Amino acid sequence: MSTRLPTGRSLKDNVSRTYARTSERDVRQLRVARSWDCNRLSASPWFVLVIVLGIVWCVPIPSAAAAEPAVKNVLVLHNWASLPASWAIMESTVRARVPGQVNFYAASVENPRFDDDVYRESLAETLHRGYGGVKLDLVIASTYAVLEFVMEYRDEMFPGVPIVFTDVSRQQAEKLWPEVTGVVSPVGMGETIDLALHLHPDTKAVAIVTGVTGWDKYWLTVAHAELLRRQDKVKEIDLIGPAENQILEKVAELPPHTVVLFQLRPDDFTHPAVDPIDLLATIANRVPTYSAWQGLALGRGGVGGAYRDLPKDAVLNGGIVARVLSGERPADIPIVHDSDLRVRVDWRELQRWHIAESALPPGSVIEYRQFTFWQRERKYIVIAMVLIAGQALLIAGLLWQRARKRKAEAVLRESEERFRVMADTTPSLVWMCDERGRITYLNDRRIAFTGPDADTGYGDNWITYVHPEDVERMLGTLYEALKIKEPFSQEYRLRRSDGIYRWMFDVASPRVNGDGSFGGFIGSAIDTTDQKLAQQALEKVSGQLIEAQEKERSRIARDLHDDICQRLALLSMEIEQANRTSSGSPAATKQNLEDIRKHCSEIAGDVQSLSHQLHSSKLDYLGVAAAIRSLCSEHSKQHHVNVDFSERNVPKHLPKDISLCLFRIAQEALHNAVKYSGTKQFSVALYAIEEEIQLVVRDGGAGFDFEEAKKNRGLGLVSMQERIQLVQGRFAVDSKPGKGTRIFAAVPFVAEQESSPKDASGKKDGSAQGVA
Prior knowledge:
disordered N terminus, single chain, disordered C terminus, alpha/beta
């Protein structure tokens, strides 16, 4: 609900307007006339008598002002985002028929909770408080839903104030209250359907695209009733739901010879996944589309429909409002049913669906007709051609005489303009200097770079923009080039307009004057700061990658040497011992063989664990959920910790890059948690929400500073961020010293055909709260 209080107080989404008429101009003219008369009389011998008469003459003014009509206040309640343009016609009609000042206040009560009784009571109380201080003479309720609300809470909000309705259909007019009046506005649902069947005689089905709100359900019932009368001609197909891509999928499956009846209106509160207007345009490109509401068809891709005359309705509404403001009771004013329907179509859609204009019903209005340029401007073109021909004959001689002179001047100007345009449009900073090294020209980009004063870069002042550490080297290079008159290049730092120094790579070449003498240098500089920073970052990352690779190789070599190799040597000794004692008792031999088998099994398990750390085969065959579950189990056994793993709705088949990304992030996060957290309790969660996979790794341990850890702990956190960026995902680390750590990763995905389709009707932010 949005409104504006007359005292200046405002509520959410205020939409209000106040209009008033005054006679200020007449008062000014009257005062000027009186002043003129008094000046004339002041020069007369009868000055004193004139003053007395003037005082007597001025006495009736207050009584005349008191006789002015009282101010009328009208409140308009509607459920639109803003009032339609036709309301201006209604207001002008009222002002033309009601003397005095008329103030209009507009308030929108549109809200998804409008049908809730608690909200309606709160809304009624708010309107009562907001307009309790205004003496309302009339309340206009636009649409039946608003009228029903006003009549229900009339005594609490506006006791005794007359009620006039607008935009109420013929079907709804049967339920009206006896003490209200207004104009019944027909909705051409049946007429629109008949128009579609008339223009598409081979139609076999009518698909109704509508929403799930109370408004949509009511008009869906009306459409059902109209199609029921035509069930021998066409069948009905209902496409009900919010504006989503599923509607387009259903439209794509419609049978041939189908037309669409679109009545899914835009909603500013529900924020659907797809804008209903965009949905209408997409549907209209595939199937002939009609609508019983002019705003949902014409100019948006629809062919058209049967619509009421909005200006006529506005005049009729204005007449009823004027009668009530003039003192008539609404009960004494009969409800007006004079509004007619008229077929309106979009000329562009007629061309799209190859519909002849002759097929339209008589009296149809064709909008958006596109005329050819010749049809629109034929008269003016003929006149212009005659004038041009005459002027051409008159100036031909003059042009011939001046041709040679202008040609030479044009060549010179063209050369200068070409250079200036080229210099100003090039991405480089272009400059020119004379034979002494003084700057004589700077292009626009160079001036904008150092700005804002364009004069300080000329002459010898340009050196003040160069970094102090580079001045001596740069001047030495320039003066040496001026001596030998040869091209040169150099790098230096130049101060930008915001005070930041940027690295520039400058290349200059000598230029000559018209007589062949040396005229100085012309050069162009480009900003290489980003390339330098990127190169430094690349060198740093390359070093880190090499260091990480060497660390990983050292760890694998250490594990093989210190663990696997030692245990294999021990196994060899045990086998040798078993050979020596093989002649002994069978029980001792059996025990030795059993120990050897256990050691072989342990070594095989450790080798397999080491292999899984490098690459998990379960990731390829069983999916990411099974691979991460196995990873948690291995960490629990190897490090004697408790890793709790949970997963929900995760498809078995995911794209390989997404599965590998999530597995590596879980592996790195769990490895860091076990190594640095100082606790033995961890949790790993993997969820599928809408079209997104979310991974959360938690621990209640020591925690750390995220930014400091990225600088000092190698590539662990940086690699996780880079992996998630490769699959266009989201990554976050929530950790504080002593508060534990939470690592969150989310990756968008599209499930394969084997996986069950996900419900896309929920809100993404609300779903993510279940994991967070």
